[in-house]
Amino acid sequence: MPExxxxxxxxxxxxxxxxxxxxxxxxxxxxxxxxxxxxxxxxKGFEIIGRVRDRYHLHLRxxxxxxxxxxxLFVLMSARPLCPHCLAARRRATAEAAGVTFxxxxxxxxxxxxxxxxxxxxxxxxxxxxxxxxxxxxxxxxGICLIQREEAEAQRYGWQRLGPDETRPSNYRLYRHGxxxxxxxxxxxxxxxxxxxAACGESWSSRPSFxxxxxxxxPADDDAPSRRYLKLGYSAHPVxxxxxxxxxxxGAEVEVLRVVPMPTGHAACGTEKAAHARLVRxxxxxxxxxxxxxxxxxxxxxxxxxxxRAVIEAEIDRIARDQGPDRGDAVSADPPG
Length: 337
Ligand SMILES: [Zn+2]
Ligand SMILES: [Zn+2]
Ligand SMILES: [Zn+2]
Prior knowledge:
By secondary structure, the protein is of the alpha+beta class. The chain has helices at residues 35-43, 73-78, 84-98, 127-134, 143-155, 187-191, 242-246, 265-282, 290-293, 309-323, and strands at residues 46-52, 57-62, 68-72, 101-105, 112-116, 122-126, 159-164, 172-177, 182-186, 209-218, 227-235, 253-262, 303-304.
């Protein structure tokens, strides 16, 4: 029988994550280590230190980390074996850069891993997504915390978040009003309290003001690479046409991270100014200098680096706690257009 790939699937070149036992508890296999195998191993950064289990398996030592693992002869000769120790080290480093802790690969799906987030919850994410998060191209959000946050946001306006609305686009949720009526509302509208109840007709009387946190992404231009900023601000109206209202360039993207309704514009203004004073005093390095923003957007001050997000969110949590949940008022309609 020729030596050829097998179907037992414990090692395949196409799914390197599923390959290779990290250590060798396998019985040795009596047989020579052919010189051209050893040459192939060295060319790929490994040393063959033995044959194990059967005539198809080799025990390799990694030239980078000196860790050993078992792979198939076929993989060595036709592809590039992956050192599981180096792979795990890379995953730990990538996870750290993405702000989470790598726990383990998903044994059911080789492209997915389990991670612990700062909140303590375990996230299951594609490795590729974590790579992107490590490069700052995306964020890793805890779905459990996100649901809890949305529940609290709905409560502020007298609604109970029930769950996703499977019949509509993914940004819609089902909510139950204080009167008992259930309806589907876009999550972004609920964030600003723009939701009227179709049953009891409680109509829109939006909060006088809002404190908000935006994640602003500016595209690269001739003078500068793409940039990412945090904007903490307040507004008397739900900020919907971000680009226009914030004077952002074409191609800018804005994500609403947080909104806290405030009882008066005066309170919003004072609270926002106090928060900025604390942030600037404690984290001057995170304040973006006006010169960097000149010509790129109208906003010049009170713009922060993305790494301050957790600190700013803690500040917003405190503001929200001070306001307290407030039910029944501020139920409003989605404005036409
Ligand atoms: Zn290694
Ligand atoms: Zn969480
Ligand atoms: Zn109602």
